[in-house]
Amino acid sequence: MRIGYARTSTQQEEQDKSIEGQVAELERSGCDRVIAERRSAFKGNERPGWDELWALVGRGGVREVVVADQSRLSRSGDDMEFLELCAARGTKVIALVGGEIETESIGGFVQAGMMSVFSQMQSRLTAAKVRDGLRRRREEGYYACGNVPFGYAYDGKYVVPSPENWEAARRMWDEIMALDCNVSAWVAQSERKWTPRGVRAWLNNPMLRGVVRDAHGATQALVSWQEWAEAQNKLRARSRMRGRAAHEVHLFTGLVRCECCGKSLHNVHDRARKRLKCKTRWCDRYGQGIAEVVVRTKVIEALSSKAEELAREAAASSIEPEEAGVIRKKIEALQAAQAAGVEGLDGLIDDLHRQLRALQNVDTSARYELLTELFADPRTLALATDAELRAVILQFVREMVWPGGLESLTVTLR
Question: Which of 94, 170, 211, 343 has the smallest set of CB atoms within 10 Å of its CB?
């Protein structure tokens, strides 16, 4: 398979021709598929297309990866890691400008490394120029503020009330306050395309009270300071009322490791199914995984196959009664007093030792039978909750190793 990868740094319209041109060139070069995305490759931003390309190469079957030039891969330095992965998989990387990019030879490695460093330097230099330009504009009295909230406009130098939206923004504020800052209720009633999250961000924007870039009174305030403070208090109160979602118990978190890289598999939802996948980019099985239901079945089968042995060991090493712990503490206290010079405690200590031995001779046959029943019938564990089954696994399973494949799992019991 020949995969093309096209990327631009932003969503701005000026980049339309760039991304369209890259895609067209890649398609003309004979790519079976082109992955295109608009994401910055400089500051470690999330890049779904880039991650997908890693996964495709990691799984094998990709003959060539084609890009306009090496800088389209990344400007953060991880393009070298990607090139090493391609070399390990036998995948060629072709730049339409510059030819094949390889790291196996000394010369190729040096050239690719220099291009990677040059791309990083170029991005840092551009960022430095932008910061310097913004600083100089602020010194000259300009407000380089980016996007402005609903109700305002940017005239190229200052933030000013929007002639079109100023009155609508004030009505919006009054409507939300009338609902006691119930943002979700306002969104449900409003015909505008707002989200609750977007409305909260708008209510929290300091420009509504006349603050631009920490400069107070830099623009006309939509609301007074008292109104803004009242809204913040109501939003905080509603935030506490919402509370936090209950923590979801992940059954196999940190318990199943990949045989190839030795790292733990990650919990992911893949097409409405829970799966455990390897997320180590340099691993041969990166992006591959096994369904959680398969792992669960394999573990229950392993526990059931050694039901009697596990139950016997568990009964033999059962936790002693609570009274035994109390007696132990008494013995330790008396022995400490005896060591400090207190006499006449031998009889008390011996008596406590006899009580402790009597408790340790408690019949564990009933506990043994319960454990045997638990492990012998797979249906018992199959009906257990994730939290209950995880507790059993932590107690009786030493390790679970995934060797690859959709149905393979090595379960080692303690």
Answer: 343
